[in-house]
C-alpha cells in the first residue's frame, strides 16, 4: 500500500480518525476505514534479532537556575492540560533543541578557589564568608532561600530522610554518594521536597555524579525520592540507583521517584529499581517529569515497569534499556496527561506476556518526535478509552515495510472533532508509511489486520464529513470485494464478481460516492481489489479439489477456563484441536484460515495456536507455551515470521467458545507456507480407528525418512477421544515414537496390519481405564447429577522432550506437563501406564486449588496407583517372595525412609504423642504418608459408628474423592470450612500451603464423621489451630489406633493373610539371654499382625512392630500384658504376666 500519495493535496496538518471523518479548511484528512469486517491479515514476528544501532553522544544540559528572574515560574506546574486544538499552544510540546553547556565559562562559580580548598567539608559561602557544618542536616537547617550548600565529600550515610522546605542547591566537586547508615537493614525515604520548595543538584566536574543509592534495601513502601506539589527537583549528572519496593507485595506503587511537582533530570540515570508498578517514577496529577540525555536501565516490575503517570512526561535524547516487565505495559499516561518522546532508544527490554510498550488512557496524548527506536521490541501502542490520541511531530524513520508500529484505539472516536492521530507537518505525515492504525486493540496473540483501508479526503465546504462507511451500500461493496465467496469457509465462489458488467457497476458506484474527493488513492485501491477478484478466482479453481480435506470441525467443549473454574482444578489445558500443519522455521509462513460459526470475541475466543514439539528453542519451558492468534468469521490472513526460529511449531485450533465451529486452513500455493506432519486421533464413536492407525504408522515411517535427512521436523502427535473420560494428547518426536513401537517385537506393528489394529484398540482401552480410575479417585462422574463433578473435556496434554531440563526433566505448568523422552517408551507401548512421574505431574494439573498442598496432594495419585499395581502384582505372582523394603519401594524410593522415620517417632513417643513432630518434619513426604494411610484405611473400614452423610460417596469414590466432591459442589459443609479457617500468624510464611493443610483436616472430619484433628495429631500435625480443633471436636474420636497401619498392610488381603477370629489367641513365652529377658509372642495369624503394645498396670508403655519384646527397665513389682493388632485393627490380648521373685523368672497368671 503506497502511502506517499497521501502527501498530495495537503497542507500542514493531517489526522486519522476512527469512526468519523473530520475536515477543516485546506487541511488534508487521513481517514481510517476498515476494508472489511471479515478480512483479516496478520503479521506475527515470533522473534527478531537484536539491532546494532549505536546511541548518539550524550549532550549535557545545564540545570535551571532558580535565581534567574526570567525563570520565576519554573517552580509552578501549569494545571491546565494542553489543548491540541489551541492555535496559541502550538509550541507547548516542543523541547528547546539547544542544550545548555555546563562548561560554559559565563557560568563559572565565583567561589571556585575556596571550593577547591575546603576538601571533605560541608559549607555555605555567602557575603559574610564561609560557614562549615559537621552534618548536611545542620547546613540545611541553617541555610536561607537560594543558598548553595557545597558538599565536598564522597559519602554521606543517612540516619533519616533529607527534608527540603526551601529553595536550595547541592553542589559537589566529588563523586558524591548518599547511602543508608549501615546499621539499617531496611531502607527509607532518602529525600523529600516539601510543597513550594526546590532543590538543584550539580557537580563541579561533568564526569562526576551525585548518587542516591538505595542498595536494594527494602524501602518499606516509600519512594527513594519524594517531590511534593509545586516543588521542583533539578539534577544534572546524577544517578538514582537500586530503589527496592519489591517485597512480594502486589500493591507497591513506586520505587525511585514519587512525583507530585516538577522533576528535571539532565545526564542522569535511574537503574536497578524494583516495584510492582512504576519502578522508575510515578507522576501524580499536574506533575511534570523531564529527562534529557539520560538512561533508564535494569529496572524490574510486574507492569507499568517504568511509570504510571497522571502528569506530563518528556523523555529526550535518552536510552531505555534492559528493563523487565512480568506483565503488561511500559508506560501509562492517564487523566489528561501526556508523554513526549524525542530521540529515545528502547533496547533489550523484555515483556513476558504483552507486546504493548505504551498505553495512553482517558484523554491523554502521546507525542512522538523523530529518531525513536523501538528496535527488537514490542511495537504496539494502545489508545484507551475517552479520547486518547497520538501526535507525531516528525517523520518516524526507524521503520520499514516489515517493521511497523501498531497503534490501536480501544474505543472508537464518538465525537467528530476528536483526532485519534495527528500529524504536525508534511514530514510527520510521511510516517503513515510506517504505522498501522486499527480500531480495536488486539493482543500480540490475536490476529492483527494489517491491510486496513485508508481513505484520504480533502476539505469539503468547511464541513465535518462523516465516515464513508456510514453508507451501508458502499460498505457492502467493500465487503464483497474483500471476500468474494457465498459461504464463510470460502468453498463457493461468487462468479458474478468477475463479470465485466458487475465490475463496471461497482466502479461507477464508488466513483460517484467519492466524486468530491481526491480519487487517486481510492482509484488505486479499487482497481487493485477488482484485479484481486480475478486472481482469487484462479486460485480457487486451482485449489478446488483440496478444499474439503482442509476443513476441520471443532466440537463444543466449552472454554478451558470455564471447565477449570467449574472443577476447581489447577490445569490450564487448552481445547486444542490438531490441524496437521506446522509452521516452517526460517521463513515467513503465509496461509489463510477461514472460520464458519457464531463467535463472540469479547467473551469466547476462537484462536489459532502454535507450539514447538520435541525440539524447543533454548530448551526453555516457556517456549513450549502456545502462541495464540484470534480468529474472526470468514477470512483470516496470516504471515507468521519464523525467520529467527530454529524449530518448527505445530498448529492447533483453540475453541474457547460455547459452540461448535468449522475452519478451513489454506496453505499458500505460490509462497513459503505451512507444511503437514503425521498425526493420529482415536475417536470413540468411529469403527475405523484400527485402519487409520495402520495408515498412520506407515505414514510415520515414511515421514521419518525425511526427518533423518533434516527436511522435516521431528514431530508427531496422538490424541485419544473417549466418550466419558475426555481427551488426552501426547506430543513427541516422530522418530522416538517409531523407535518405541519397534520394541513390540512379539507382535511387530509395522509388519502386520492385524497387530497394529489389535495394539491400538488394546492401548486405547488401557488408557481409558487409567483415566476412569484417576477420575474416580478424584470423585468425578461423567453423568453425575451435579455438573461440578463432570469430567473435564479439555485436552489433557502430555509433552515429551529429551532436552528441557529446567525447572526439571519432570514438571507441570498447567497448560501441559512435561516428561523426558527416556521415560516415554513404556508408556507409549502400554507396558507401564501408572508410573509415578506421569501421575505426579498430571496430579499437579488436577490438584484442587482450594486444598492444594504443593508437591504433596498431587502425589496421592501416585500412591494409589502404586498400591493398585502392587496388589495386581501380588495376585499375579502368588509364590513370589515379597520383602517389606521391596514393597515400600514400589511406592517411591523415599517411602522406606519415611516409614522408618514414622515408626521411630511412634515408638519413642508412644506415651507423649504431643511430642511427635513427624507430620511437620519435612515438606512433602510426611503429609503424603499421613493422609494416604489414614484415608485409605477408613475407605475400607466399616463406618457403622460414624454419622457421616457421605458414606455412600466414600464407598464409591473413597475418602479423598468424597471430599473433593463437597469442595466442587460448594455445599454447606464446605462453606463452613471456608469460614472457620483463621488468619493465624504461624501461616504467614506459607499461608496457602499451611491453611490448605488445615482445610484438609476439617474436610476429612466432615466426610468421614471422625475428628481428623485427633487422627492427624497422632501423625505429628501439631500446628492445627484451636478454632479448627474446636470445629472438628463435634465429631467423635476414632477409637482404634489408626496410626499403627502401615503401607504394606494394604496388600495383606491380596496375599490372603487371615484376620483374627474369635478363636485366635496371643500366646507369650519368656526367654533369657545373657541375663536379659525377652517376651516372645506367638499367634497363628502372625502374618496379619502389624504391631504389639506393652501395658504396665493397665497403662500403655511401649509399642513395637517386633514379635519379640526385650524386657529392659522392667518393674518387678508390676503386672504386664501385651495387645496385638491385625491389619483391620482387630486386637488380641495376652495373659497378664508378672515376675516371680521366688523363682526368679517371669510367668503368666
From TrEMBL:
Q: Where is the composition biased (Polar residues)?
A: 545-562
Q: Which residues form the Peptidase M60 domain?
A: 574-893
Domain of life, per the record? Bacteria
Q: Which residues cross the membrane?
A: 12-35
Q: Basic and acidic residues bias: where?
A: 47-83, 91-101
What InterPro entries does its record include?
A: Pectin_lyase_fold/virulence, Peptidase_M60_dom
The UniProt entry's coiled-coil ranges are none
Q: Map out region (Disordered) in residue numbers.
A: 43-114, 544-564
- Keyword set, alphabetical order: Membrane, Transmembrane, Transmembrane helix
- Please give the name of this protein: Peptidase M60 domain-containing protein
Q: Which organism is it from?
A: Mesomycoplasma neurolyticum
